Automatic annotation (TrEMBL):
Residues 104-156 form the Trichome birefringence-like N-terminal domain. It comes from the Eukaryota. It is found in: Membrane. Coiled coil: none annotated. This is Trichome birefringence-like N-terminal domain-containing protein. InterPro entries: TBL, TBL_C, TBL_N. The lineage of its organism: Eukaryota, Viridiplantae, Streptophyta, Embryophyta, Tracheophyta.
């Protein structure tokens, strides 16, 4: 056997192909040195290509925010799909995201998508447990699109709220929402989301001034709300004081409220808006029995930090994490300044009918100093606290507040009052069904 054929036999197959194309198969004789050079170059090129292929498939280059689903992606997006996305039209066929994983999926990275086929699980007419304050349709709101927007995560699929799954999760348990009127809205949303699948004789509601209980006999469970707008004690806990300058907080005392939180299996806390009702907050150490003596005015974030530390110390000292899970709903943004979303005409959130579709929108109604206080306090706690991060997704929803379709001091706004949105538009609370349903969608995904 000639030297040329020995070399070809030992080298990889691609060299053989090159060699044949140069005339070996036709009997044409090439110099041995030329065959060796061609084959060596081919061999090096092959090794280089295989090395790149191996590197490009390495796991360290795949930076997915969620674990990939088994099997093929559901579909491939077309050019028209991108156009639909920009218009806020949901395209089910273009959904190739991953399954939701609470530890890896960012709930702030998403967008609101309009889905006209989506049917809310309840209405303010069908659920008997809604306060008139948030029953916007009953109060005369003429548009309904605000009920058909869904928060769609960029990389992950946020599961829909499943009432039966929710009831299964709280079977044999006490679930309590603790906080202000926004937390009461989340509680009412949760109750309305599950109550339609419970037989009439298996459910009951007891409303109280500070403590309300929805009982589900079939599941031996309760869904409760406890009113504590600051979490710590204040002179506005029962007899609400409208003037923020007259409110006084016992920033070092929480036991008056906390004694009602014992033996609860799932605690969901919030507190924000009441702390932001002024630049200064009258903060008291000691008893209210001493009158207003002993208080000092603190900057709102400073008082907030002291109050939240008082709450955190109680949780760390009294909650057994093996028996009780603790959640914290982050701040719900307000939309009081129309200039935030570049509209000079109009008044606050009045007559807004669509969300802000700009990604990562941030307005003046969310105080980032407060977010930093919450995160810094919670990260030092011994008991794990799960955030229900509603802030970013709610920032976009300028269209979903109760506005003038609400009540004030127990009375629905009159036609004359509705005509004065500057004085009466409520751009703090949310219509139900609406945005708080999405908060509970997140809550259930974490539960």
């Amino acid at each position: 056997m000639s030297q040329a054929f020995i070399l070809v036999y030992l080298l990889p197959h691609p060299c053989l192909g090159v060699f044949c194309k140069m005339g070996v198969s036709s009997g044409y004789s090439l110099p041995v040195w030329m065959v060796m050079v061609v084959c060596a170059v081919t061999f090096v090129a092959l090794l280089y290509t295989e090395t790149l292929s191996s590197l490009s498939s390495g796991s360290f280059l795949r930076l997915n925010s969620c674990p990939k689903k088994k099997g093929e992606p559901r579909s491939v997006k077309s050019a028209s799909d991108d156009e639909n996305d920009s218009r806020g039209i949901k395209n089910e066929a273009a959904d190739d995201r991953f399954e939701f994983d609470p530890s890896e999926c960012s709930v702030t990275n998403g967008k609101w998508v309009f889905n006209s086929s989506f049917k809310p699980l309840y209405s303010d007419e069908s659920c008997p447990h809604l306060d008139r304050q948030v029953a916007c349709v009953t109060n005369g709101r003429p548009d309904s699109d605000y009920r058909f927007w869904e928060w769609q995560l960029e990389d992950c699929v946020l599961p829909r709220f499943d009432p039966k799954r929710a009831l299964h999760k709280i079977r044999g348990k006490r679930l309590m929402f603790v906080g202000d009127s926004l937390q009461r809205g989340q509680w009412q949303s949760f109750v309305c989301l599950v109550e339609s699948v419970i037989p009439q004789n298996q459910k009951s509601m007891r409303r109280g001034r500070s403590h309300s209980v929805f009982k589900i006999k079939q599941y031996n469970a309760t869904v409760e709300f406890y009113w504590a707008p600051f979490l710590v004690e204040s002179n506005s806990d029962l007899h609400i004081i409208g003037d923020p300058k007259q409110r006084i907080l016992r920033v070092d005392s929480v036991e008056k409220h906390a004694r009602n939180w014992h033996n609860v299996d799932i605690l969901v806390f919030n507190t924000y808006v009441w702390w932001m009702s002024g630049l200064k907050i009258k903060s008291l150490w000691g008893s209210f029995a001493n009158g207003e003596e002993g208080f000092e005015e603190l900057d709102a974030p400073v008082a907030y930090r002291i109050g939240l530390k008082t709450w955190a110390n109680w949780v760390d000292s009294n909650v057994n994490p093996k028996k009780t899970r603790v959640f914290f709903t982050t701040m719900s943004p307000t939309h009081m300044r129309r200039a935030d979303w570049s509209k000079k005409d109009g008044i606050r959130c009045y007559n807004e009918t669509k969300p802000i579709l700009k990604k990562q929108y941030w307005g003046s109604g969310s105080d980032q100093r407060i977010m930093k206080v919450v995160s810094s306090v919670v990260e030092k706690m011994k008991v794990a606290v799960t955030f229900i991060n509603v802030t970013q997704l709610s920032e976009h929803r300028i269209d979903a507040h109760t506005s003038v379709y609400t009540e004030v001091q127990g009375s629905v706004l009159t036609a004359e009052e509705k005509a004065e949105p500057l004085h009466y538009a409520d751009c703090i609370h949310w219509c139900l069904p609406g945005v708080p349903d999405t908060w509970n969608q997140l809550f259930l995904a974490y539960l």
